[in-house]
Records
---
Amino acid sequence: MSLTSPSSAAGASRLSARLFFVTGTDTEIGKTTTTAALTHWATGQGLRAAGLKPVAAGQERLDGRWVNEDVLALHAAQRADLTIEQVGPIQLRTPCAPHLAARLEGTAIRREAVLAAVRAPLAQLDLAFVEGVGGWRVPLDEESGWDSADFARELAAPVILVVGLRLGCINHALLTAEAIAARGLTLAGWVGNTVDAGMLQHADNLATLKALLPAPCLGAVPRLQHPTPSAVAACLDAELLKKVLLTP
């Protein structure tokens, strides 16, 4: 798959969907399960919704094709008839930082290609959740120095932060919130996702985050044995979701 495409394609689609950018306090803290749950909830509201993961690193071979597991999960959660390629247009084989994976594979991630890939399916959607990669600042386009925070800023999308609930989460969450604000973006809400089931003072940590983060908590997700989109969505605050996601 070529990771470059004409920059003119970025403006080719009618941008009908409302966008949210989903980021996290780190990698492997539940961005994809949260994005799939948000997609599931929005679909239940009668909306054409989908989670998009424009850049994904790490693939496995399933049914004769190479695919990223996060992209597969997001594709399964949507009912808007998007293809896997629309949900995850830029997939790299190596499970490491995407700019390094691209370098290893003899290609490059380009800003214009990423933006065009996000914008292309938006005319088919009412609501889109664009999932970043890793944490807030992950290098993407090595040539220009463009990273995932720049990506969110160019989309001008409100941000949903997934906080991995484990030791250190308060510091990570507050620093990420500051970095989001520094880019001139709005933190629309956050989700606490339990990464460490044995975390000490879990409730007190959650209360501290609610007191200090400048956005509403959209839900607190326990450590689930089967974190399906419906199971995670059931842990979210439906009234707050309506207010944050559906109110212009």
---
Amino acid sequence: MSELGGQRRWLDGLGWVALYALIWALFTEGAGWTLGVPSILLAAGLSLWLGLRPWHPSLAALPGFLGFFLGKMAAGAWDVALRALHPKRPLQPAWLDYTLTSSSSQVRLVLSALVGLLPGTLASQVEGDRMRVHVLDERQPWETTVHSLERRLEQLLAPGDRP
């Protein structure tokens, strides 16, 4: 292994450890490090063994992504509150297919996870270039919102398909 390859692997390992430690801290509210540290190291080692590289998001795209996503989450919370206060508000639930435009597996993975936090949507599976989505009301512009999220994730996670 070349010296540059060894440095890259070391940096990738640190990236995975940092990411998994952050996830552990968020989910456990900073507790349980006796179990967390070995789990984090095992997950990081497995990621390296599988040849995965940690994500390197574009810091320039991060503010726009956060603004868009937090705005949509607030809109979703408002919609749920209105539906709770007005239970007769019409719904037209449906299972629909969304055609994915990104070829990045990272973008597809994160998109499928984040769609459930958008107003009235939930992704159930990705198969080929299609993502199955459940919507509370198919008359709402859910597809435009999901497409905007996918574009923003593409800018955030795969700008120019960096190595």
---
Amino acid sequence: MDTKTIAKAAAGLKGEVQIPGDKSISHRSVMFSALGSTPVHITNFLHAQDCLSTAACMKALGASVEFKSDTELVVTGNGLRGLKEPQTIIDAGNSGTTLRLMMGILAPQPFLTTFTGDASLHKRPMGRVIAPLSQMGAKIYGRQDNQKLPITIVPQAQKLKGMTYNSPVASAQVKSAILLAGMYAEGDTTVVEPFTSRDHTERMLEAFGVHTEKNGTAVTIHPVKEFNAPQEIEVPGDISSAAYWLVAGCIIPGSDLLLRNVGVNVTRTGILDVLKDMGADITLVNERTSGGEAAADIRVRYSKLHGTKFGAEIMPRLIDEIPIIAVAALFAEGDTVITGAGELRVKETDRLQAITDQFNKLAPGAVDGTEDGLVIHGGKPIQHAQAFSYDDHRIAMSLAILGAAGDGVTIENPECVNISYPAFYQTLDSLR
């Protein structure tokens, strides 16, 4: 069994961190470029397993994907209707984003596609995408009543029909899959969400000359004739990766960090709002726009935090950051109450259960799990412990920061950070 021991960071973390490319935007940059017909030069691409799964998928569908370096590539497609039938089964790896968005793109295509993935992805629910696409006329078949991998998309004689879909969940993946299918459909396609989810798809579609209309929590797309690909896409740094350093800077005494080139799209910055509400010392500098996406450098310094309360309304803006926010809450004065996070039970693992079980090893009795959230009692003593990552990158990185801020931790199966942040442990070591 592979383990990694993280020691306490006694004197604080100091320095600058170049944040790796945003995972969501890296996925979309390759997918959308492969639907154009001219070369697109992509820089600051996230060279991690999930995004490489997307690059491999687009290559299997006939696009040219040429890596110049780990973080730089050129993608050339054959036009919006130029995807080719893959020669074999497509492997989405561990990536739910790859699978769900690709189902939207491939549901209207005139050829058969079959998807597989790793053991974790085989357990994740895909019915939330398959059901609306089927309502548009797609023919998609999967295990367990069209819910689970492997999944096959069968071509149909008629074009998909546009529709208005009232989504029961605020999910960028669900919304994106339907909008991408809607590009090929007859008539307009509208997705209405209970709350607005991340809008990376809409912003990048705009960069490819495709206009979407927003009305409250509803987004509408019209049938699309062609993509006008930009020559270049610079991917901003991923705020979900910056989140670990944001929290580390807040809770480890003596810390002063500058995080370079962080995407600060307002649909993603819930963690900044929550940490500031808890009393964090966070400043945005050098604010700018890149490829339709807001970016900035973020300075974070140690500060005394206090507990807070948040729920469903902000959840789409910080769902991936709940594990690391829970770490911040352990070092805050008073209780932090998190509700409306039931979505975390169907991620790479049941993250609510993972946080409860593993964080309590380091801070006994500090975390109470609820059906859709957590109650975290801040200020309890932190001890060294051996904890399990569940092969979940966000749990592993959160445990590492908890150990660095507490009394150390030994993490089982630590290498799962390669899913989104291969340089994470080296970066932590360099900031001590």
